[in-house]
Amino acid sequence: MTRTGGALVVDCLMALGATKAFGIPGESYLAVLDALHDTQGRLDFVLCRHEGGAAFMASAWGKLTGKPGICLVTRGPGVTNAAIGIHTAMQDSAPMLVLVGQVGTDMIGREAFQEIDYPAVFGSMAKWAVQIDRADRIPEILARAWKTAVTGRPGPVVIALPEDMLTSQTDTPPLTGPAEIAEPAPLPAALDKALTMLAGARRPLILTGGCTWTAQGKAALQRFAEASDIPVLAAFRFQDCVDNTSPVYAGEAGVGMPTHVRRLIAECDLLLAVNVRFGEMTTDAYTLLRVPQPEQVLIHVHASDAEIGKIYQPQLGIQAGPNAFADALRPVTGPWADWRRAARAGFLASMQAPAQPSPVDMVAVMDHLRATLPEDAILTNGAGNFAVWPNKFFAFGPKARLLAPQSGAMGYGLPAAIAAKVAHPRRTVVCFAGDGDFQMTCAELATAAQAGAQPIVLVLNNGIYGTIRAHQERNYPARVSGTTMQNPDFVMLARAYGFHAERVGATGDFAAAFGRAMQSRTGALLDLDISPEALTPRQTLTQMREAALSRHEG
């Protein structure tokens, strides 16, 4: 059968398992869009409003499902707009395929209209960047791209598709399915050595994270930790990798790191790190573990050999997938019961914050959400001071999920929430967004309405870029500039997009408003007044933020 290169791309994506694609149309890949006309219900194109939003959605899809999120954008400005989502997927270790139009092969190298050398531009930002110059190589390269995105340390792959290649005819058959690649398991001798090292410790600690966990793998690690009575920490913004209600869960190693978490990492004598890449936030700027050889005994388990020893040299490195490793573990015992109990007590204490002196007290809001949200709720957030609330004051049970960017990208939360509703229409999805964060991608409310994937959005509105203002007040007192915003009426804006929307101006009004949001069939936006206007001159924004963190900052 003869088909266009664009049709072959679509047929191969479906064979690999893609069911949704997020993107913005472009003339450089019209042949792909034409092929998508015939795949509705099998491979659907979710029309977005900005390439950055589309890329965030694809990145979040990969993080949530474990399968590559598909992003389709046009050449030049289209893919450079999408770069923020590519960077986020890389830092999150989330599988993703970015298919981008390219100028015709006869024009490459001339700086033609919107031409970009994709391998050169994205070579350091993506896991792989490649161009397909011949239609008969589409199945080969797409299969490799899919495999690259999901194996080892997962990440984004950028694939350039020249326009003339997509319109050319080919009789090359499409793929028949993805390759089944077994997750690498630990060698028995390495596993035995790890268990012996654990049994010889006095203050062992487990650190876990990453996107490739299955429900069975997470449950296996939890069973091991509970049977062995070893405390478990989540890496930055991977709280949903372990049941927060388990007696072994001790908190998140991330921004605003609680004192007890910092102490656990610094004072443990053995750290079992499973599926983590040792980012800056998880290590408190690489201060909690000495570079390159930590004082703590380090066992580092990762599916990618490139991650083991990249920053910290472990006493034992094990190249294995997290699920296979967790399933192979056998309980150990040791004299650390008091250590584990103290770790759990520190986490429980950190969840108790003092009341906030703003019109809407977020402590009360989080108390209500913890008590009322379904056990399989999905929470999302972008970047800003507001993220402390879903990241530090919500307990993620075994079915709950968190989609939050390790890259610290503003604007991620709303597109991620839309992707979550596309993937799981019946689940409750709540997006936390600061007012500045929300305005980065608020046009994607139209995407949500058109796709029938409307989440609940909580806009924490204080009229300022809060994180930067806090740093200004600390470093340049009484000289703040460039951080005050004049915001639109978020309620009117959301209603214009067909959402139920309300302004919540007092703490006592939140529960009823959230109840109405939960009942809305068209999504909801609640504009929460957390402005610092009610503060006395001595209660600056910085002090307000530090009050929220005072309990778990010690």
Automatic annotation (TrEMBL):
Gene3D superfamilies: 3.40.50.970, TPP-binding domain. Keywords: Thiamine pyrophosphate. Residues 382-527 form the Thiamine pyrophosphate enzyme TPP-binding domain. This is Thiamine pyrophosphate-binding protein. The keyword Aminoacyl-tRNA synthetase does not apply. Residues 4-118 form the Thiamine pyrophosphate enzyme N-terminal TPP-binding domain. The keyword Iron-sulfur does not apply. InterPro entries: DHS-like_NAD/FAD-binding_dom, THDP-binding, Thiamin_PyroP_enz_cen_dom, Thiamin_PyroP_enz_TPP-bd_dom, TPP_enz, TPP_enzyme_TPP-bd. CDD domains: TPP_enzymes (cd00568), TPP_PYR_POX_like (cd07035). Belongs to the TPP enzyme family. Residues 191-329 form the Thiamine pyrophosphate enzyme central domain.
